[in-house]
Amino acid sequence: MSMRKRPKPAPVADTAHGTHGGDVTVVAQPVWLVPAFAAAGALVGWLVKLLANWLVTLRWAPMKGPAELLNSIPEPWLTLLGVVVGVLLGVLLGFITLYESLTVRVSDTHVTLTIHDESRDLRRADLGPVFLDGKTLVLLGLHTEEAAREPCDLDRADVAAAFTGHGYAWVAEDPHKADFHLWVPDTPGLPVGANALLSARAHAMRKTGTAEDVRALRDELNGLGLAVRDEDRRQYWRLPAPPRQGV
Questions:
Q1: Is the pTM for the entire model greater than 0.85?
Q2: Of 6, 45, 74, 234, which is least surrounded by CB within 10 A?
Q3: Nearest 10 degrees: CA dihedral of 8, 10, 16, 19?
């Protein structure tokens, strides 16, 4: 498993469904999200103008000062300003959504998971079952360790079809869900350093950390062989199964 800077993405059809390019299936958020957000932003900008017009007619209303300031702008400039600002904010939100969304590329030999500015490549030969744990895509290794766990808002049927279409072992749910234990500070029997990492991750989840910090700490725990899943801001852990003889 290796980390590298995000390459130029292969062209993806304007659809949320998986697309095929040669021997690779790509599942990603549809590119039409950006113009859709832009259109929604334009509508919101127009509605803000109507709201400002209504607020200034009331004897008392919250934010009446800003509403009067907006209404001091002559038409059609007020409408144009609201629509343009709404479109720009919508486009920005659309690009942020695409940036923070997972893109899955599946071939007969590799899986590439891209999110933010990083891509993670996994060999088919190193992978076991694949499944969605709620809104999280999980790929297990050959000894039940978690090779990857990434947030995933993609359509479940499209993701399943991408993996099964290339012969991966897709399962309906985590086959090791019953093996997870609630983490409490200083849990005995964990790998050296795991309790400190879990403590730092719990603190990051509650207070100071960003999503990237929480994700990086999970990667560190995975490197120690510890699988971690979250539920209601609580961490659950399990250790991989011991390798069978001859494996």
A1: no
A2: 74
A3: -160
